[in-house]
Design goal:
Layout (H helix, E strand, L loop, with lengths): L2 H5 L4 H12 L1 H7 L13 E5 L2 E4 H19 L5 H6 L2 H22 L5 H9 L13 H10 L4 H22 L6 H12 L1 E9 L12 H10 L9 E9 L1 H4 L7 H16 E2 L2 E9 L2 H12 L4 H7 L4 H4 E6 L6 H7 L11 E3 L2 E11 L2 E2 L2 H33 L4 H7 L5 E6 L17 H8 L11 E2 L5 E10 L10 H29 L4 H7 L5 E6 L9 H7 L7 E6 L3 E11 L8 H30 L1 E3 L1 H8 L6
Antiparallel strand pairs: 1-2, 1-17, 3-14, 3-16, 4-11, 4-13, 5-10, 6-7, 6-9, 8-9, 12-13, 15-16
C-alpha cells in the first residue's frame, strides 16, 4: 500500500500511526487471541469489524502490495511460503482490521473531510512534487499506476487515512512526558560516582597446595557434566565456490586489458572540471558589443557590473563537461584557456560571454594499477557459470548413487575429510578446525543429519555450494577423572583462588565499612589504592560491568567488592556522587523526551485501537484467509 508514501509528509503522529498499523499484530493476535475471532462467514467476506466488511479482494490487493514492497527491498522474488514465515499474512490482516476499527469510529463520530481539503493535502504531499517544488501530475500518475490505484480509489483511501489520523491525534496528540520521569532518567544516565579501589590479583591468593586425590575426585564428581566429552562427527565435505572455481591468475592480460578499456571511462577516470562564469545578454548585438569592450580592455567583472549582476549571479559552478546539458555552452567553456573570455556563445538561455577561472585536470588510473582487481572480477564473473556447471555435474553423479568422494573425483575435485569435529567447530584437542567453508551453517546441518543421509547442499554467501556426508558419530559421554585430570586440576585451582580472593576482599570490605583506613588496609596487603571520578552506569575504564553494577548498588560512603578483569577481585569505596542538573533544552534531553513520547504514544494508541476492536467485535473467515494467501489457516 501507499501507507509509508502517504505519511511521508505528515507529522510524528502520522509516523506513529504507521508503526501501530504495521505492528498491531502483537496486540490483535497475541493479546486478545486469534482463536476467538474465527467464525463463519458468507463467501467473499474475509473479515468483519463492526459493520465494516473486509473483502477477500481487499485483502489480496493489500497482501500483494506488501509482498511487492518486500521484493523491491530484498531485490529478489519472495515466495508466499517465505512471506507467511515472517508473518506477512497476519501483518496485513492486522493492519486492515485496525484501519476498519478506526473507520468505524470515524463513522460513529460523523467525521468527514471536504474535497478542497483532501485536494490541498495531496497537492502539498512532497511525494508528488516535481523539481520545481510544485505538484507534478506526471509523478502523481506514475505512483498511482505503479501501485494499481485509480485516482478515485486513491483519493478515497487518502481521505480515510487523514480521518484516522485525526482520531489518533485527538487520542494522543497532546501527550506530555512527566517532568519527574525525565529528571529520573537524567539522574540514571548522567550520575557520576567517584571511587577509591584496589584490585586483588590472582597472586594475592598465595601458593595453592596441590589437592589430594580425594579432594580432586570429589570436585570432579560434583561437576562431571562440565567435563563431558562432546559429540564428535567424522564429516566428508566438498566446497565449490566462485573463489575456488576460477583462479584470477588464469585470466590473461589481454582479457583484463579489454575489460579495462570497456569500463575505464566510468570507473577509473576522473573527468576534467572547470569553474565557469557566464554573463547572459538579451540578444546577439548586446553580447557582441560587450565582447568588443573586453577586447578593448574592459574586465569581465565590469561587464557584469554594467548588467547589474553580482558575482553570485554569474557563477555557474565547478562542473564537468557532462554536467552541462547545453552542448554549445559545454563545448565553448571546455575549449577556453583559463581566465580568457569567450566570443559570444548562443546558449539555451540566450547569447552569453563565458570565462573559466579555474581548471582541475582530469586523470585516469593506469591499467597496471588496477589489473589485479580486474582479473579477480573477471574470474568471479566466469566462476559463477563454472560453479553452476560443477554443481549440476556433481548432483548428477549423486543422483546416480555415487558417493560424494566419487562424485567429486568425476569432475576433477577432491573431498576433505574431517576425522573429528564438535558442534562448535573444534577437534578433540580443543583446537578450532580451520578452513571450513560456510562453517556455522555447515556444522548446524551436519549435526542435524545422520550417517547415510543424502543431505541438501549448504549455500555460501558468494553463491557457492558445500556438500557433506556424515561418515561417523562419536556420541557425547561422561569421562573418567584420569582422562581429564589436568583440566579438572586447573578448574579446581581457579575456583580455590577465587574463593581465597573473595574471602580477603570480604574481610577488607568489612573493615572499610567499620571505618578503617583504606590506604592502610591496602598497604598491609601490598596493594595500591587507585582512584576514579568518572564511573558512570554506561561504563568506565578499568571497571567491568559487574563491578559498575555493584558500585551503584551501595550508597555514597559505602564499600563493596566485585569480580574484576583477569580473574582478579576489586574492593571499592564510594566517595561521592554528582548529577548534572536537568536541562530540558539540551539536545540529549529533547531526544529522550521525544523517544519517551513516541513510546507512550504507541502504547496509548495500541490500547485505544484494541478497545475499539473489542467494542465493535472482530471476526475472521479462516477459509477465505487461507484461499487468499494459499496457506494454512490454522493460527
Amino acid at each position: 500500500m501507499l501507507q509509508g508514501l502517504r505519511n511521508a509528509s505528515q507529522n510524528w503522529m502520522g509516523r506513529t500511526l504507521l508503526a501501530i498499523v504495521m505492528g498491531f499484530i502483537v496486540v490483535s493476535f497475541a493479546i486478545w487471541g486469534i482463536g476467538d475471532i474465527f467464525r463463519g462467514f458468507g463467501s467473499g467476506k474475509l473479515a468483519q469489524v463492526g459493520s465494516i466488511d473486509i473483502s477477500s479482494q481487499d485483502y489480496r490487493a493489500a497482501y500483494q502490495n506488501e509482498l511487492q514492497r518486500l521484493q523491491r527491498q530484498a531485490r529478489r522474488g519472495i515466495t508466499n511460503e517465505e512471506a507467511r514465515a515472517i508473518g506477512l499474512d497476519r501483518e496485513v490482516l492486522s493492519r486492515l482490521v485496525t484501519d476498519a476499527a478506526l473507520d468505524q469510529k470515524a463513522r460513529q463520530l460523523g467525521l468527514a473531510m471536504a474535497d478542497e481539503d483532501i485536494t490541498k493535502a495531496i497537492f502539498n504531499d512532497p511525494a508528488f512534487k516535481g523539481p520545481n517544488g510544485q505538484f507534478d501530475r506526471a509523478s502523481f500518475n506514475d505512483v498511482l499506476r505503479n501501485y494499481g490505484y485509480s485516482e478515485r480509489a486513491f483519493i478515497t483511501e487518502q481521505r480515510q487515512t487523514y480521518l484516522r489520523q485525526e482520531i489518533l491525534q485527538a487520542v494522543a496528540g497532546n501527550l506530555v512526558v512527566p517532568q519527574a520521569m525525565l529528571e529520573g532518567i537524567n539522574r540514571y544516565r548522567n550520575e557520576t560516582r567517584s571511587v577509591d579501589y584496589v584490585v586483588l590479583p590472582p597472586s594475592a591468593a598465595g601458593d595453592i597446595p596441590a589437592p589430594s586425590e580425594e579432594v580432586l575426585q570429589k570436585y570432579f564428581d560434583e561437576r562431571k557434566q562440565n567435563f563431558r566429552a562432546p559429540e564428535y562427527r567424522r564429516v566428508v565435505t566438498l566446497a565449490v565456490t566462485p573463489a575456488t572455481a576460477v583462479n584470477p591468475e588464469s585470466i590473461s592480460d589481454a582479457d583484463a586489458q579489454k575489460f579495462y578499456d570497456e569500463v575505464k571511462a566510468a570507473r577509473f577516470s576522473t573527468p576534467e572540471k572547470r569553474d565557469i562564469q557566464q554573463i547572459i545578454f538579451p540578444d546577439e548585438a548586446a553580447a557582441t558589443e560587450a565582447s568588443a569592450k573586453v577586447k578593448s580592455g574592459a574586465t569581465f567583472e565590469s561587464i557584469a557590473a554594467d548588467r547589474k549582476l553580482t558575482e553570485k549571479d554569474i557563477e555557474l559552478a565547478v562542473l564537468t563537461k557532462s554536467d552541462i546539458a547545453d552542448q554549445a555552452l559545454a563545448s565553448a567553456a571546455f575549449a577556453l584557456p583559463e581566465n580568457e573570455v569567450s566570443q559570444p556563445v548562443k546558449t539555451a538561455f540566450g547569447y552569453a560571454l563565458l570565462r573559466v577561472t579555474k581548471i582541475e585536470p582530469g586523470s585516469t588510473k593506469p591499467f597496471a594499477d588496477v589489473s589485479a582487481d580486474l582479473k579477480r572480477e573477471i574470474a568471479a564473473q566466469r566462476a559463477k557459470t563454472q560453479v553452476q556447471k560443477l554443481h549440476d555435474a556433481i548432483e548428477d553423479q549423486r543422483s546416480a548413487g555415487k558417493s560424494l568422494a566419487d562424485a567429486a573425483k568425476s569432475v576433477g575435485l577432491d573431498v576433505r575429510t574431517i576425522d573429528a569435529i564438535d558442534a562448535t567447530g573444534r577437534d578433540k584437542n580443543g583446537t578450532p578446525v580451520e578452513g571450513l567453508t560456510a562453517g556455522p551453517d555447515l556444522l548446524k546441518a551436519a549435526f542435524a543429519s545422520d550417517i547415510g543421509v543424502d543431505n541438501d547442499t549448504v549455500n555460501t554467501a558468494d553463491g557457492g555450494y558445500v556438500w557433506f556426508e556424515v561418515a561417523g558419530i562419536d556420541p557425547a559421554h561422561e569421562r573418567k577423572l584420569d582422562e581429564v585430570k589436568p583440566e579438572v586440576d586447573a578448574a579446581w585451582r581457579n575456583d580455590e583462588t577465587q574463593r581465597i580472593l573473595a574471602e580477603k576482599a570480604t574481610a577488607m570490605m568489612k573493615e572499610l565499612q567499620a571505618g578503617g583506613d583504606f590506604a592502610g588496609l591496602a598497604g598491609a596487603a601490598s596493594l595500591q589504592v587507585q582512584h576514579s571520578n568518572q564511573v558512570k552506569r554506561s561504563g568506565a575504564t578499568g571497571f567491568p560491568p559487574a563491578a559498575i553494577v555493584q558500585i551503584y548498588n551501595v550508597p555514597v560512603g559505602g564499600a563493596g567488592q566485585a569480580a574484576a578483569e583477569g580473574n582478579s577481585r576489586m574492593v571499592f569505596h564510594v566517595l561521592d556522587s554528582v548529577v548534572q542538573p536537568f536541562d530540558p533544552d539540551k539536545p540529549d534531553s529533547k531526544q529522550i523526551a521525544e523517544q519517551l513520547k513516541s513510546g507512550f504514544t504507541e502504547d496509548l494508541i495500541s490500547e485505544y485501537v484494541r478497545r475499539l476492536q473489542n467494542d465493535y467485535g472482530v471476526s475472521v473467515n479462516p477459509g477465505a484467509l487461507q484461499a487468499a494467501t494459499g496457506g494454512d489457516s490454522s493460527y
